[in-house]
Each structure stands twice: as structure tokens, then as C-alpha cells.
Amino acid sequence: MPAFTVTCPSCGTANRIPADKEGKAGRCGTCHRELPPLYYQPQQLAEQTFDPFVKGYGGPVLVEFWAPWCPHCRSYAPAVRKAAELLAGTAAVVQVNSQDNPQLAGRFGVRGIPVMFLLKEGRIVAQLEGARSSDEIVAWFRRQR
Ligand SMILES: [Zn+2]
């Protein structure tokens, strides 16, 4: 069973969380406060699930907008999956099908896809356009601190 590290926001302890606990908020082994849930795979969100997810997660969220007809989005998908793994325990990576969720795409002002936004406390703080490598996504994320 693979495991990922979730750093406790309260005391800084690195907690090992097994992959099968994805999406469940565990407790810190040291201070016993609730940890942000682990996500290591891109979560597929829609109009109704988006805001509750972002609010409930609490940490930074990377949102990728894509569409089924977009070949660049298809070739980007493995890098997005890999980035979700690399950022597991630090940030959540989510995907929104812009064709099925036009209101959400409108709210973000999506003009071209694929595009990724970084949300902190629910607000857009950065935007990354076009298909990138997972390393480029992670480097972009780290630059926004
Ligand atoms: Zn703790």
C-alpha cells in the first residue's frame, strides 16, 4: 500500500497516510488535531461539488479545466495525475470538465483549455495556461508561496 505524507498545519509533524485513506480527514499522530484530507489523484468536480470541496479541503487547490474534445487536454492528463501525486499532502488537484460545467468555467474566465488555476482560501492567486510537465506544474505551484 503506497502512503503519502500529510504535514500537520498545527504542529508541523509529517504524518504518513496510506493511499486508501484518500479523501478522509485523519488526525495528527502528535497533537491529535484534524489533518487536511489526503488527495493524491485528481478529483473530478462539477458545478454542485466544486465549492463544497474547496471549502471543506481548506488547503491550496489546483483546478484544471479541460474538455473531452481537446487533444491537448488528453495529452496533459498524465502530467496532471502525476502532479496530484507529487503534491499529495500539500495541495489538492481537481479537474473540471468545462463542457459539462460552463458556469464554473465562466466564473474562472476560462478562455482556452487546458488551463490550471491555483486557489488559496477559495481565491484565484495564479493561472498556468497550456499543457505542461508535472515538474513544471509543481515548480509553478512552489513559486506562488
Ligand atoms: Zn499536529
How is this structure best described in words?
With 145 residues, this protein is an alpha/beta fold. It folds into two domains: 38 residues, Roll (SH3 type barrels), CATH 2.30.30; 101 residues, Glutaredoxin. The chain is built from four helices and seven strands; from the N terminus they run βββαβαβαββα. The strands form two sheets. It has a five-stranded mixed β-sheet, sandwiched between helices. A two-stranded antiparallel sheet has the order 1-2. Helix 2 crosses helix 4. It is globular, with a radius of gyration of 15 Å. The N and C termini lie far apart (31 Å). Bound molecules: zinc ion.
Task: Summarize the entry for a quick read.
With 145 residues, the chain is α/β, with parallel strands linked by helices. The chain is built from 4 helices and 7 strands, in the order E-E-E-H-E-H-E-H-E-E-H. It has helices at residues 47-57, 71-86, 102-107, 134-143, and strands at residues 3-7, 14-18, 43-45, 61-66, 92-97, 115-120, 123-129.
Essential attributes:
5-stranded mixed β-sheet; SH3 type barrels; globular; 26% strand; Glutaredoxin; two-stranded antiparallel ribbon; 4 helices; 2 domains; 145 residues; binds zinc ion; alpha/beta
How are the SSEs placed, and which strands pair?
Blueprint: E1 3-7, E2 14-18, E3 43-45, H1 47-57, E4 61-66, H2 71-86, E5 92-97, H3 102-107, E6 115-120, E7 123-129, H4 134-143
Parallel strand pairs: 3-5, 4-5
Antiparallel strand pairs: 1-2, 4-6, 6-7
Bound molecules: zinc ion.
